[in-house]
Design goal:
mainly beta, Immunoglobulin-like, 4-stranded antiparallel beta sheet, 9 strands, 42% strand, elongated
Length: 139
């Protein structure tokens, strides 16, 4: 049997977990009828996340306050998780996006938006090690 080295780019891996780690396992397929057992789980560190600048702006359109969040690209991440909180509420996962901007209509009666942008991860929970941008704005 010949030895063959296979390299998988980290961008091809699934999303990191909330601790910025990859949990990987594999198996070898010799042909369509023969394959190995699954490997032990290997834990790989994700790339340290770079905090970047961002801007939160708002404009009134048709009587509604539209809030737009933009931030610089961090770590060449393919996706970002957007967390929002209104006034003094806790952060809630809003959406996973593939761009470096996001717009949302502010609910009636709120006065402040708090924004947390993280590197896209498998678990949609707030994690300080995944933070890309955090800010707030009166709306």
């Amino acid at each position: 049997m010949a030895n063959k080295k296979v390299t998988i780019d980290k961008l091809s891996l699934p999303l990191v977990n909330s601790n910025n780690k990859y949990y990987i396992r594999y198996r070898v397929v010799l042909d369509k009828t023969k394959d190995s057992d699954w490997s032990q789980i290997a834990v790989l560190d994700g790339k340290a996340v770079t905090v970047v600048p961002g801007v939160i702006s708002s404009v009134t359109t048709a009587g509604k306050e539209v809030v737009t969040i933009t931030w610089d690209k961090s770590n060449n991440s393919p996706t970002y998780d957007v967390f929002l909180s209104w006034d003094t509420g806790a952060y809630v996962f809003e959406k996973n996006v593939s761009s470096t901007s996001y717009s949302v209509i502010a609910p009636d009666g709120v006065s402040t938006i708090n924004v947390l942008i993280q590197i896209g991860s498998a678990q949609k929970t707030v994690s300080s090690v995944l933070k890309v941008f955090e800010g707030s704005k009166n709306v």
